């Protein structure tokens, strides 16, 4: 198995991980809506995952860039820019005092990310298989 | 075309005939019709179906003429003040030309009305008699024709009638703001009790609409925001009804929706069960409901307070407690850095605390207090119980805050009273020579928090400098270049996350923070106000405080004393329940939203207002809906209680009723909250646009659905009579310091104004947005004397500088400041009488206290000022400024900026604002 094969295998695993993180976020948000959790606990819990999620995504994107997988990198670039911008303006963390007002936005964002990770999961899988076939030929 | 707004004989109605372009007169019982107006009968019908003409048209014309003056040159800039007064001395005009009116010829009838002097020597106005307003209910307006057409829609049943008025020709009438909200017409038999208190008073809870539309689309058609404005914990003035208390701990609640039993439930099944008014579930009536536990004999359930009163307090049994009721705890964090000592803040504060020790709520001797002083170190004071001496412990390690001693820091107020008194007497002297500059506010807050975290209570912070070291240190981010640009709203957001995270910790530990800010320079009020905002406290700001000016010291001591003496609610949670298909969608005010509809308030001060937006989720089928606010709290006397405020409102599927029931004061309060929130999350510009657009939307909706003009252009700008003041209130909001477009407002002042806009109850907020303006030199003779309802106030004038005469003496007050405006040609006798000075020239402008002189005029003026300070609820004690007509420009401009109907800088005058609105309304084809 060549470099591209390993890279996309890793990407598939990462995408699956990110996918689960988003599912977790969405479940937590709906818990908040149903009063199963209070906003302070919710924010404490979710804020632990915000930076790891962003880092994991950024790491993956940088890997694509370094290995010259341009299409894969370009796919990830918008989200990367979005995340970087959020961290720079300092509002990447969930704020317990504002959470109820911003909840719809957060949910929408999480759903879009979920969709994105799902698509990229299949894309990486496809690229992995393509790379494996190319190797075996 | 003569308006039929003349007295028709009984039994006649007038209808507009579109094809013939004239009125058709119909005799209703015979069906006879004729084109000629019928001869008027000898007496008026008691309820003529055509509205009688209003009685204040002279004022209209006079106003319009004045406006014309203001437009063309005279009012162009504030610098042109002399010309204002030049125009003023002319006699009260009675017949002035108004193009719109005269051209039409439509109002000939009305012009024959005797022209009353503006607000004139009519009946005296008693401000403190809201229950029986002397001012008559506004007569239906000049557009009675339209009103009639639409009035007929609602003729069938008793209810609100819609009266349309034209904003272009009817200037705002300040007295209208003092009228009670539109009446609530509940369907018959909806209420169990005949008590007039069955519905909560508007001062506790009011809705923007007093008839709730049955569907969301109907609400959207009207464009009026639906929301509740509440002040559940309101102070009571002398003579006001106490909130009745249910002491027997029998609390009947619905099993499903947890609604408390109230006057709007139904008893069924022979009185053994009751049907919930919100979810219609049938519940059992508790056995003890008909039992008088005090006398141990059968009782009368119909006499129970919760079935007769909209506002009621239950004494809560143990199920409502997580822990035994805690004592009230007060911790004072006093800044003793150089600037605080220099300004005299420390001395004034300690003296105020000392003087008010007896007033601190402590009925059963459980209240605890502690004092922490701080500059760049923390100073704790041990107050041994019984001893008279205190000792000071200094902690200079501010990175890891700890309490130097486990005991004797937080002490019982009664036991440690002697030590506390000596400490308070000495504190300011102890730090007299302190030259430390800087403030470790964050660590001091943490120390206070550690001390009271097991119990909870109130931290009162008194600080005169920007926090500079330790956690929560802030930088001076005031940048004059940013002011007036889109970036300005950044200055209104919290600079450091500490003040939000710490606020959440406080909220969890039931700790509330009050901020008293005194800085001579920039203090980042926006960030510091976050703490009170999320912990349900209050912020007080005394810019450039200097205790050597007695006025400053008096104001602060008065307000601080009132805050100390205020009975507070502790460990409170508030929830608002509403009938099916109504949902509380967003919340504004000082609290932390703990779950979707639960508001956590560690301590509730009196007279704080909260606004809640309401959504209609599905069609409401019930004939009336109920809003119930429940505040579970511990009183500062150690009793767990639930305060329940219930308001029932009818529903309607009729758009005209929706408009006729709108409460402009509540709408303005809600809009103020929304505007401030928007200015923080978006930009100030956006929030102003949102306000303006909301007003346009409402007017467009009204025009499209309620007037004959429909979607087309119209020469009039129609709105219902009960919303007549809304445009001027919106204009007042747009011109308020918190929202106004300007590059000169320091961010601290703006942030403080915003804090006020979101926390003041309507009673104080409305004058803050639309100040009161009285003329003193020619007030009716009874004003300022004690009448039936206390001191009689002069009639309020519209807020325009046309009213300022060169020889006059005026009061302009917005509840936070009082300006005493004196014209340059004031006669020496007036100056002598009021100020005890020989002439106008020697009089100095600025903050002042009026001398009490031995002449009737001085006594009346003093009485009016005194009354202005006392007539409202709340702790505020406004400063009195003397403003000379040719005095210092900043002060003069400040006073003139209260006259919101004038043009100021880029901000439009009322007339311009109205024509902007009209252009927008006509421009947007709807």
TrEMBL record, chain A:
Subcellular location: Membrane
Source species of the chain: Somion occarium
Membrane-crossing segments per the record: 7-29, 58-82, 114-134
Membrane-protein topology: Multi-pass membrane protein
Primary location recorded for the protein, binned into one broad class: membrane
The protein's name: Cornichon
Alphabetized InterPro entries for the sequence: Cornichon, Cornichon_conserved
Pfam families: Cornichon
Keyword 4Fe-4S: no
Signal peptide coordinates: none
Family as reported in the entry's similarity comment: Belongs to the cornichon family.
Upper lineage: Eukaryota, Fungi, Dikarya, Basidiomycota, Agaricomycotina
Keywords: Membrane, Transmembrane, Transmembrane helix
UniProtKB/TrEMBL annotation, chain B:
Domain of life: Eukaryota
Keywords: Cytoplasm, Endoplasmic reticulum, ER-Golgi transport, Golgi apparatus, Membrane, Protein transport, Transport
Gene3D superfamilies: 2.20.70.10, beta-sandwich domain of Sec23/24 (2.60.40.1670), Sec23/Sec24 helical domain (1.20.120.730), Severin (3.40.20.10), von Willebrand factor, type A domain (3.40.50.410), Zn-finger domain of Sec23/24 (2.30.30.380)
Region (Disordered): 33-65, 106-126
Positions of the WW domain: 6-40
Annotated compartments: Cytoplasm; Endoplasmic reticulum membrane; Golgi apparatus membrane
InterPro entries the record matches: ADF-H/Gelsolin-like_dom_sf (IPR029006), Beta-sandwich_Sec23_24 (IPR012990), Gelsolin-like_dom (IPR007123), Gelsolin-like_dom_sf (IPR036180), Sec23/24_helical_dom (IPR006900), Sec23/24_helical_dom_sf (IPR036175), Sec23/24_trunk_dom (IPR006896), SEC23_SEC24_subfamily (IPR050550)
Database matches in PANTHER family: SEC24-RELATED PROTEIN (PTHR13803), SECRETORY 24AB, ISOFORM A (PTHR13803:SF39)
UniProt family annotation: Belongs to the SEC23/SEC24 family. SEC24 subfamily.
Protein name as it appears in the record: WW domain-containing protein
